[in-house]
Amino acid sequence: MIANKTVVLGITGGIAAYKAADLASKLTQAGAKVKVVMTKSATEFVTPLTFWSVTGQEVTTEMFGPSAKPGITHITLADSTDVVAIVPATADIMAKLASGIADDMLTCVVLATKAPIIIAPAMHSNMYENPVTQENLAKLKSRGFVIVEPEYGRLASGAMGMGRLAEVGKILGTIQQVLGRSGDLAGKQIVVTAGGTQEAIDPVRFISNRSSGKMGYAVAEAARDRGAQVKLITAPTVLLDPPGIDIVRITSAIQMKEAVTEATTKADALIMAAAVADYQPKSTAKQKIKKEATGADLTLELARTPDTLAEVKGNFIKVGFAAESENLVANAKEKLERKQVDLFVANDITAADSGFSVDTNKVTIIDKKGNIEELPLMSKREVADRVLDRVVGMLGSKNK
Question: Mind giving me the DSSP string for 337-364?
Fold first, then answer.
């Protein structure tokens, strides 16, 4: 959880420094106290005022001299932070950190802190691939530094290559993961499913549904941020891969059942947020079906797909999601009993601001005892945390 955490955000002298302003803003919006420390060269690319404006916190640029802040030392910063993130991390700063050099405020903070340290390298591919840089990275990894690997893309020089700063969302997700290591799901293995399965008609066409995968991805990220080891089994979506999560890609309902069966052998909880197709074509054409060959109409014979939630058994908490268009509570209760799950989360898909594709949800949570909790409209991430609150409680009762 980022809220109420302190993050020392180190900015070094690379063109990607401007992207760190977006990260600082997102951290602040999430409720973190962001203390920015800039190297002298970083101030040549972005001004301290930029970071002061988005964080509401004074920016530290020097240890000594007229701009040094009274009472702000490398020790006070090192002791007060929950995590240090260096974005971007240049080849120069990585070489200094690997060698234990402490010749400015940022390097002194890193050497003095006992908080976890995250670095996101960004530089030209020639510098990144240089054996010295790779050796320094290996040293930092061996010492427990968390590395957000750079990406392949267009560089400041105009060339294409490895060394582009990772997307801000990936860096933010890594910070969330690191901060959640000691959360209330630490050491637990949580399996989450997401997206809508696709049942092939022929090599081109398939039967599917409107699920975007957003709810399942929100649950997976929330569980990660509470310290869990998360396996996300996902049908095709357009969503970005959340960092720090083991992702298993499937397409069909049959593949979903196989993946869930394998993943839950050591799981503490299964949260089925995926919209698994109820039917599949009885046979799949090996070649594209031509209109000319079928006449005016095409008739498909459908067969039931496996009911993964009902059929997968084990000593783990089972949570199901139900998208309903009528009789919300009654249908959810029937499914809860028939599928023998511990908790059902039902949402009315007829509401414009709840259900598929949108970022919000209005759900009703029903447990085995018949207790019903109707939640107000909230973000899918907030829904995810409310569901996980219940999972944490059930895991606690199970272990007593």
Answer: HHHT-SEEEEEETTSTTSSSSSSEE-EE
Q: Phi and psi for 44 in degrees, rounded to 5?
A: -75, -20
Give me the numbers of helices (H) and strands (E) for the chain, helices first please. Answer: 14, 21
Residue 233: beta bridge partners? Answer: 193, 248
Q: Give residue-wise pLDDT tens across range 127-179.
A: 999 999 999 999 999 999 999 999 999 888 888 999 999 999 999 999 999 99
Number of domains in the chain: 2
Q: Which residues are catalytic?
A: 209
- The model's pTM is 0.89
Backbone angles phi, psi at 294, to 5 degrees: -100, -15
Nearest to 48 by CA among 97, 9, 103, 82: 9
Domain containing 367 equals 189-398
Select from 173, 99, 94, 82 the least CA-distant residue to 127.
94
Which tens digit of pLDDT belongs to each residue from 387-396?
999 999 999 8
Residues 287 and 140 in one domain: no
